[in-house]
Amino acid sequence: MTGQTAGIALLVAMATGWPFGAVFLALNLPFMWLAWTRMGPGFTIRTLLAVALVSLLTALQPRLVNFGAVDPVAGAILAGMISGAGLLALFRHGASLGGIGVLGVWLQDRTGFRAGYTQMVVDAGVFVAALVLLPPKSVALSLLGAVVLNASIAINHRRDWYVAI
Fold first, then answer.
1. Rounded to an integer, what distance in angstroms lies between the CA atom of residue 38 and that of residue 129?
2. Residues 118-164: pLDDT tens digits?
3. Is 165 exposed, middle or buried (0-12, 13-18, 19+ CB in 10 A)?
4. Which of 3, 14, 109, 141 has the fewest CB atoms inside 10 Å of its own CB, making it the most exposed?
5. Rounded-to-integer distance, Cα 61 and Cα 137, Å
6. Is the Cβ–Cβ distance between 43 and 94 less than 8 Å?
């Protein structure tokens, strides 16, 4: 399980049997309007490309990557760290993975409320909903990964750190 728009898409895909990539792309489309009108065409195009790549790569991933035995706690922490670093790179280069990320970056730029905190609030709702479809242990491990991811963003994403000298 994961949080944010991807988590919502995953829940919809699990409940309906629809492919995750298609659901993820569809859920992100309304946020593209916010991105276009509030953050500009460059941000929107980069974000749409990132969303399209995630949608495509999630379909290809089972054929490209296979993990052996991984300690679940270590896996949750490492996945959260790696995902956080990836999102930070996207934010640093004026993009996001759409959805709640667009909303979070926009709110941070406008109000100073950290994008990671916005994502944590949404994630709380996603993980409560996940308890309907998944065992509590799986949700708890997923929540651990989401906390690590969102803490990474909350601590490290600041526009003033990206100023070139």
1. 30
2. 877 888 899 999 999 999 999 999 989 988 988 888 788 766 665 54
3. exposed
4. 109
5. 24
6. yes
